[in-house]
Amino acid sequence: MNQIILWGILVIPWFLLLLLDKQRVKRFFTVGLFAALMMTIAYQVAEKMHWWTVQENVFFLTSMGATIYCLHIVITIFVFYLTYPGFILYIIVNIILDLIHGYVIVPFLAKIGLYNLYDISHFGLFLVMTTVAIILYLFQRLLDFIFEESLA
């Protein structure tokens, strides 16, 4: 059953992007990929600091959660699609999603044996995710500045 959940997490969210305007998805795809990079770094730090571990995964991933390569990218694109450029709305939506992630999704994944927190609290995880969200927003602003300058 866990493998079905993991493969669903890895594949299904991509289809949600088909519901969105193609040009706007392209605009935010780079920040989505940057989110995957940021979460890959976070997972590496977590492994070294013993913050959390991935207990079960799809066969080609080791210590990286399947969520990095799909769910984080798609959710990042969705959040930017719905909230950008308004920082206040963006951060409110991210705080809500990060709280749900830290206090609902992670305990569920731990309960079914996919993921465990060790030397980081749920609130610490929330802070990590919120920090990544702020970095992502700044990255998107930088991209916008670069593209505006190149068009001028």
Automatic annotation (TrEMBL):
Alphabetical UniProt keywords: Membrane, Transmembrane, Transmembrane helix
Domain of life of the organism encoding this protein: Bacteria
Protein name as annotated: Uncharacterized protein
Positions of transmembrane segments: 6-21, 28-46, 58-80, 87-108, 120-139
